[in-house]
Amino acid sequence: MKRLAFFVLAALLILFAESARAADLPSVVNIGTQQIPNGETIVKAYGYFNDLGVKVNLVEFDSGKDVITAMASGGIDLGMMGSTPASVGIATGIPIELIWIHDVIGKAESLAVKPGSGISGLKDLAGKKIATPFGSTAHYSLLNALKFADVNAKNVAVLDLQPADIYAAWQRGDIDGAYVWHPTLDKLLSDGGQVIISSEDLAAKGIITADVEVVRSEFARKYPELVADYIKLQIRAVDIYKNKFDEAVDVVAKAYDISPKESQQQITELIWLSPQEHLTSKYLGTSKRKGDIVKALKSTSEFLVEQKLIEKSPDLSVFEKAVNPAYIEKALGQ
Fold it and tell me: How far apart are CA 197 and CA 107, in angstroms?
């Protein structure tokens, strides 16, 4: 009898814990995503979002500028974007927190030019039409590339086009080149495009860009466990990439309908970080001591002010507050 009472009590406690957990969850979580071959692709392909225990509504965007706009309006709760739109969001006062780096961008974002365009180097861009999604990491990289080459951006017709529109404009012959990411970049290269400079080249000059995850601060305060669980899914994806590489290649190939060879090239052109690497001083750092991503965001905002793309760059402390490694620490049980 005592044993039966014990099992009944245990069952009631489990039910109570589950109901309490359900009460702590929203009815739906809206997550903004993009077609970028990083860990989020693996999470989506394997249906890991189902493990969050809540309905997930995935909203696909063409660029980070659109993601930050949706986040500002409360349309999404979490979203993947480049470090540049994240910097813009923080600088303009949107209440968000940067919680994860999906990838550090290397050759996966590059400036490709059309064959026969007469462009063999950055100096040749004067008088040419170059497309890029404004407010993106690619836009930031393009402007920095021009600056390094001492080419006045006013002498280049820089056009604001989304990735799908870039490929259409390329095919029509409306542009001479584009600074963009995969899979659009791969299409340009397959059509004879030549890379003039990549984000990997710029990183060597100190211009580091990344694809990051941000969360609305209000959502994170209300559902901290859910945010940490989201991080756990990304950690699982990175683990597959680092320990089951061929599996990761196949997943990305199927997700984007490309060959395994193309998949391998695209995912290795991005740097995937382990959670432990996130917590080093080179990247997010820890809750007690934030990392270099803070300075990178601040530097990005200052550059955007110079380009008159945003009005002001707030104090470094504003970016420091917006970078929050606590959810990675929580996911790791620290």
Answer: 9
Q: Does an H or E element contain 216, and which? A: strand 210-216
State the pLDDT confidence band at 3, using cuts at 50, 70 and 90. low
Per DSSP bridges, beta strands 194-198 and 177-181 are unpaired
Distance in angstroms (rounded) separating the CA atoms of residues 188 and 169: 11
Q: Could you read off the pLDDT of 227-266 as tens digits, one per residue?
A: 999 999 999 999 999 999 999 999 999 999 999 999 999 9
- Same domain? For 226 and 181 the reply is no
Residue 302 pLDDT class (50, 70, 90 cuts) = very high
**CB-based contact 29:77 (threshold 8 Å):** yes
67-72 own/partner pairs: CB under 8 Å, 24+ apart: 67/32, 67/34, 68/94, 68/96, 68/135, 68/214, 70/32, 71/32, 71/96, 71/214, 71/216
The answer to whether residues 161 and 50 belong to one domain is no
Which residues constitute the domain of residue 113?
109-203
What is the spatial order of strands in the sheet that 157-160 belongs to?
157-160, 129-132, 177-181, 109-113, 194-198
